[in-house]
Write a structure and sequence with these properties.
Elements (H helix, E strand, L loop, with lengths): L3 E6 L7 H7 L6 E4 L5 H5 L4 E6 L13 E2 L1 H6 L4 E5 L2 E5 L2 H11 L8 E5 L3 H13 L3 E5 L10 H4 L5 E4 L24 E4 L8 H18 L4 H6 L6 E3 L2 H16 L6 H14 L1 E6 L5 H12 L3 E3 H9 L3 H25 L5 E3 L8 H10 E7 L18 H15 L2 E4 L4 H14 L1
Parallel strand pairs: 1-2, 1-3, 4-6, 7-8, 7-9, 9-10, 10-11, 12-14, 12-15, 13-14, 15-16
Antiparallel strand pairs: 3-5, 5-6
Length: 433
């Protein structure tokens, strides 16, 4: 009998589970979307081999299990189902993945007041892991419980670790965050189980606070001065490593075999290379399009020129948009197109020189991408056909935009050599991350 392997959930457009399990050798793994009323009939099928379970069914499936693993029973949540000898076995491999995620990011919950956002199946796993790790206190936040998002900062301003187990910030609704870290000034560890996008708004804020701390530290400011500036060191992680680690453990249960530990890191590296957008920012004329095309050929990723996408959407060239409608209209269109492009994964994206002027744009680029800033001497920057680069405005433009390029970029690269050489340098650096 051909067995069914896959991910069971209600809405699975965000999922990366199929490429992970295929990389682990399960070629028939697929996405299985079901409405609640169809759950029971499906789980009674005798041809089920192994299933992962996600939102909203991690607790619902327990009633259909003939045998519950002690960990799943203790946690109160099942994310892995296996049919053996006519019986349906329920397991929780999320806790394996969760602990792997924390240790990989050097995050410890031991002795810390830990706030867990959400009260669903993933929250139960995080609570069990926090107890296992020796958290000093565990606070569960929900929309209807005693501790809610609105009163969290007032009730628990001394929270030290924060775990998001809700889908807030997940694709396609990526421009939201469950809490504001500035209102929780004692938090120094942040884990978000969301893995698509790679950097949720919550993680972007943690990264920004940590970056600011390191910058002020390099300037020699004392700890109390850094805190006055809203900066502190924060360790943070997204959920991709959790996804890969729990999938490896699920595959071991599906096929009753051991898989080497290094397979988790191999799959993470593969997902990083294949799914992350490579984004090029920099001054107009810095070579983003030319280097981007070389980088696309080198990486095998499709190339997207943001200016071309804007021209296509407006049905007119960019200089004409500026001349007829002005810069404000152009920037609004640029933001709309940029968000549409960044909602896709696995591309090389060359942006316009001013795409980083908007904080929302910088966040959109960083959520799904690894951002590279290209640098060239001002005298080498062409100005023809570039409305804002003409009339001797490059020096002023660089002065104003330089800090924004720095804020957007993960790395900066000089583009004074050939485009192919610059692309090779970027690709090697990206693959090492």
């Amino acid at each position: 009998m051909e067995r069914i392997y896959g991910l069971l959930g209600r809405r699975l457009g965000h999922s990366w589970s199929v490429p992970i399990h295929k990389a682990l050798g399960c070629e028939s793994y697929r996405l299985i979307e079901l409405e609640p009323e169809g759950l029971g009939d499906f789980l009674r099928r005798e041809d089920i081999g192994g299933l992962n379970v996600t939102i909203p069914y991690k607790r619902d499936v327990m009633q259909f299990c003939d045998v519950l693993d002690p960990a799943a029973r203790s946690i109160g949540s099942v994310n892995t189902l296996v049919r053996r000898g006519g019986k349906l076995y329920g397991y929780n491999t999320d806790i394996d993945g969760f602990l792997y995620m924390l240790r990989r990011a050097d995050i410890s919950l031991a002795g810390k007041k830990t706030v867990i956002l959400g009260s669903g199946g993933a929250s139960l796993t995080a609570q069990a892991a926090a107890r296992q790790e020796g958290a000093r206190e565990i606070v569960v936040v929900s929309r209807t419980g005693e501790i809610q998002y609105e009163n969290l900062p007032e009730r628990h301003p001394d929270a030290e670790a924060l775990v998001n187990t809700t889908p807030v910030g997940m694709w396609p609704h990526m421009d939201t965050a469950p809490v504001d870290l500035h209102l929780l000034p004692a938090v120094t560890d942040v884990a978000d189980v969301v893995y698509n996008p790679g950097r949720t708004n919550l993680l972007l804020q943690a990264e920004e606070i940590d970056r600011k701390y390191r910058l002020l530290d390099a300037q020699g400011l004392r700890p109390e001065e850094r805190e006055l500036n809203g900066a502190r060191p924060i360790k943070y992680t997204g959920g991709l490593s959790m996804l890969a680690a729990q999938a490896k453990r699920a595959e071991e249960l599906f096929f009753e075999k051991d898989i080497p530990h290094y397979e988790t890191e191999r799959i993470l590296a593969k997902l990083w290379r294949n799914r992350t957008n490579l984004v090029l920012v920099g001054m107009p004329g810095s070579g983003k399009t030319t280097v981007g095309k070389a980088l696309a050929e080198l990486s095998g990723k499709p190339f997207v020129d943001l200016d071309d996408e804007i021209t296509r959407a407006a049905e007119k060239p960019i200089p004409e948009i500026f001349a007829r409608e002005g810069e404000c209209a152009f920037r609004a269109l640029e933001s709309r197109v940029l968000n549409q492009v960044c909602a896709r994964s696995g591309q090389v994206i060359a942006t316009g020189g001013g795409a980083i002027l908007s904080g929302e744009n910088r966040a959109a680029l960083r959520r799904t991408g690894w951002v590279c800033c290209l640098r060239r001497r001002l005298e080498d920057l062409p100005t023809e056909g570039r409305p804002l680069s003409q009339a001797g405005r490059l020096e002023e433009m660089e002065r104003l935009r330089g800090p924004l390029y720095d804020a957007a970029a993960d790395r900066s690269f000089s583009n004074e050599i050939s485009p192919a050489e610059t692309a090779g340098t970027i690709w090697r650096d990206f693959c090492e991350q």
